[in-house]
Fold:
Amino acid sequence: MSTHDEFGWRDRAIALASLGAAALGRVAFTTADVIGEQPLKPLEMQVLVSLALQDSLAADPPQRTGLDWLSRALRLERWVVEEIVGSLERANLVRRSSDTRDVEYEFAENTDEDVIAGQLPVAVTQLGLQTVEGWLNRTRRHFSGWPPERPDVDDAVG
Structure:
């Protein structure tokens, strides 16, 4: 029996899609140069792109505050996300808003400043947006012909 016959068509498709996604992820998120700064590590770039898009299947819109949604979306431990956002802040690629009005309701009983600071909204700076645009320019070539010239091509509903 050949190896092609040992797996069903569905399992084979899942395995091939997973391998393709892993390979593409390694290529797409290779070290990205930041304008005049140290290059970003792949996880840093993933967090920056996630923050720039403010979109995730793992987190509910519209008010994504703090870092919990990033942790869920990227399947990373919360402390890892906190470290990465800290390094992006030091590189002036993101900033945290000091306006806690949006998150006060979550901490009515607990007003520990460290907890509230961890929930502050994170915004991408102009330099961060330029970095994501540069990343997109380099990454676009790996997607030749995709997506098709339809604006709603990624709309799973319609």
